[in-house]
Write a structure and sequence with these properties.
- The complex is a heterodimer.
- Chain A is mostly helical.
- Chain A has helices spanning 16-40, 42-63, 78-107, 110-115, 121-149, 158-185, 189-193, 196-204, 217-225, 227-239, 252-255, 257-282.
- Chain B is 38% helix and 26% strand.
- In chain B, a hairpin with a 2-residue loop joins strand 1 and strand 2.
- Chains A and B meet through helix 1 and helix 4 of A and helix 2, helix 3 and helix 4 of B.
């Protein structure tokens, strides 16, 4: 053996007071691990953003010219309508960015290693959450940058615009726990990859690209009550998107979009936090 | 915590998954500073045992202490005294080898400087210094596993658990990992490893517990296990198949034992209590008779044979089962 370590190396004792501190410190270590991933493999980040960017360009330039969602004529105002929808969808699909690494960590034995270590076990989850929120904010900044570049402008006051981004991140926060629950539930990363099949209709059967009023009756109702729709409608209201008049909407929920955007994530949290916690505890079955 | 010279002590470990009984009363006693092997086929309960002892899986019945701490009531203390290298190589493929060890060091609550220093020590100890700034994605299987081992050695744990440490490695990788395990054992780390490679248990372990269907079958030293299966065998191959009957006769005259033969094979085999004497006696008979031999050798039973003999009957009765994890 070439080296003798300057022993003893020991994890410091925990007191009830220091336990919370360690949750923060361990969370930070996990967050840094996630960021080092981005630094060392920026292409992952690019791929994650590729999808929304392509969608922006497709919907605005390929379909957009034929779209008349506001009654102002084909193509008129579609950028203003579709961009908030894109923001909401990018955020909504974010749950897969949580589910995939969770499934990966479980499959590759990382979860086991962490759980056999004297670290705070909640940091495994909180670290994921903090990293995901930061990443969602960065994703959003990039999409907003693209939106600004192709001519989208928020018309409301700055505080409303900031509130809109707050609502988006609030939805993303709730979706972390959906992602953790799914990530722990699926057998492996392949299972997580298949989530696209669920995410796609969930993203599209909404007011993201077209108003629910224009869909067949029952589908319109489903779309209007989709949590993603509430967030999309709420931020349109805050951005003062031209041609969007939610107060006269046929769907009650559309008339209460901001309340919906605040309450839907609460409901998601109420359902999925306990589910995620139980799933995490089930690891030790 | 009472002082004990046992690093791992388990009594009657029982674990059920619905109607499936994964562990049906496994006992273990591993003295400090020894290497103990858990040997058994897939589904024997090896992984479940390790998961219980490393606090990853709850115990249904029984009692277990690791480094003097109860796994049920003092899980946190157990975690501070152990290292685990699971079946999967749990290293971060995107970080460099050094970044991996520093990150784990931080999670083991070392301060920044200690974590960095410890990372460098471990890189050197596991001969990874040259690869320190490369990502393990491009490592060989043996290198990845050594990094994995290094990550479980951050706090120089009292007890190291290795779940099938060389499964999936090529022969060179296995030798590298064996070497690393031997070094750790030489430093006094208690090691509990699971394997279904018998030569691995033979090579590394002081004692071996053979388990099957969630129960202990036998516990012994590698040499003791081999003794249990019985004597050495004298194997003799005649150059001309027609001489085989005469060879059997000569062997019987020399050893007073009847040799086994297989139809169509020119080799005979006979268990002999005193191998060397039997070999010289048979050799002189053969020479006196002027028989042409292709080969003559004494063969010790391999652990594989011991293992098959110990588990074989039950395996035949119940068939193989899936490894529960």
């Amino acid at each position: 053996m070439s080296t003798t370590s300057t022993q003893p190396l020991a994890a410091p004792d925990e007191t009830p007071g220091s336990r919370l501190l360690w949750v923060f410190k361990d969370t930070w270590t996990i967050v840094m691990q996630e960021f080092m991933h981005l630094l060392r493999q920026p292409s992952t980040f690019a791929w994650q953003l590729g999808m929304p960017v392509v969608m922006v360009l497709m919907f605005v330039y390929v379909f957009g010219s034929a779209m008349d969602v506001t009654g102002m004529g084909a193509g008129v105002g579609y950028i203003d309508y579709a961009m908030p929808g894109m923001f909401a969808m990018t955020i909504a699909f974010g749950f897969m960015n949580t589910a995939f690494p969770v499934a990966f960590n479980k499959e590759k034995g990382f979860m086991d290693r962490f759980r056999s270590m004297p670290m705070s076990s909640s940091a495994v989850v909180t670290g994921r959450g903090v990293a995901d929120i930061i990443q969602a904010a960065v994703d959003l900044a990039v999409i907003v940058g693209i939106a600004l570049a192709i001519g989208w402008r928020p018309a409301g006051p700055v505080t409303d615009t900031l509130a809109a981004f707050g609502l988006l991140l609030w939805l993303r926060f709730a979706l972390i726990f959906v992602g953790i629950w799914i990530g722990l539930r699926v057998k492996n990363t392949e299972g997580a990859g298949n989530l696209f099949a669920i995410a796609f209709p969930l993203g599209f059967i909404s007011s993201v690209f077209a108003p629910p009023q224009m869909m067949p009756g029952w589908l319109g109702t489903v779309a209007a009550w989709n949590p993603v729709s509430s967030t999309a409608s709420a931020i349109r209201e805050l951005f003062q998107t031209p041609g969007v008049d939610l107060a006269t909407s046929t769907y009650w929920i559309e008339g209460h979009a901001i309340a919906g955007a605040l309450i839907w994530p609460v409901l998601l949290l109420v359902v999925f936090v306990p589910l995620a916690v139980r799933q995490f505890q089930n690891l030790s079955r | 915590m009472p002082p004990t010279d046992l690093a791992v002590e388990a009594r009657g470990l029982t674990k059920r998954y619905g109607p499936t009984v994964a562990l049906d009363g496994v006992d273990l006693a591993v003295p400090r500073g020894t290497v103990h092997g858990l040997l058994g086929p897939n589904g024997a309960g090896k992984t479940t045992t390790v998961r219980i002892l490393t606090t990853l899986t709850r115990l249904d019945e029984g009692r277990a202490t690791v480094a003097g701490h109860d796994v049920k009531t003092s899980a946190r203390l157990v975690r501070r005294a152990i290292g685990l290298t699971g079946q999967q190589t749990a290293v971060d493929d995107l970080l460099t080898a050094r970044q991996n060890l520093t990150m784990f060091g931080r999670l083991f609550r070392l301060d920044k400087r200690s974590a960095a220093r410890r990372a460098d020590e471990l890189l050197e100890q596991f001969s990874l210094t040259d690869a320190a700034n490369r990502a393990p994605k491009k490592f060989s299987g043996g290198m990845r596993r050594r990094l994995d081992l290094a990550a479980s050695m951050i706090l120089a744990p009292q007890v190291l658990f290795l779940d099938e440490p060389t499964t999936g490695l090529d022969p060179a990788g296995r030798r590298e990992v064996w070497h690393a395990i031997r070094q750790l054992a030489a430093q006094g780390t208690t090691v509990l490893l699971t394997t279904h490679y018998l030569d691995e248990a033979d090579q590394l372990c002081d004692r071996i517990s053979v388990v099957d269907h969630g129960r202990n079958l036998v516990e012994d030293t590698p040499a003791g296990l081999k003794r249990r299966i019985g004597d050495e065998r004298l194997e003799l191959t005649v150059a001309d198949l027609g001489d085989l009957d005469q060879a059997v006769e000569l062997v019987q005259r020399a050893t007073e034992l009847v040799a086994d033969t297989t139809p169509g094979s020119s080799t005979l085999s006979v268990p002999v209590p005193d191998g060397v004497r039997a070999l010289t006696d048979v050799a002189s008979e053969i020479r006196a008779a002027g028989l042409d031999l292709a080969d003559i050798a004494l063969r010790r039973p391999t652990l594989d044979e011991a293992f098959l003999q110990l588990t074989g009957d039950q395996a035949v009765l119940t068939g193989p089962t899936e490894e529960t994890s």
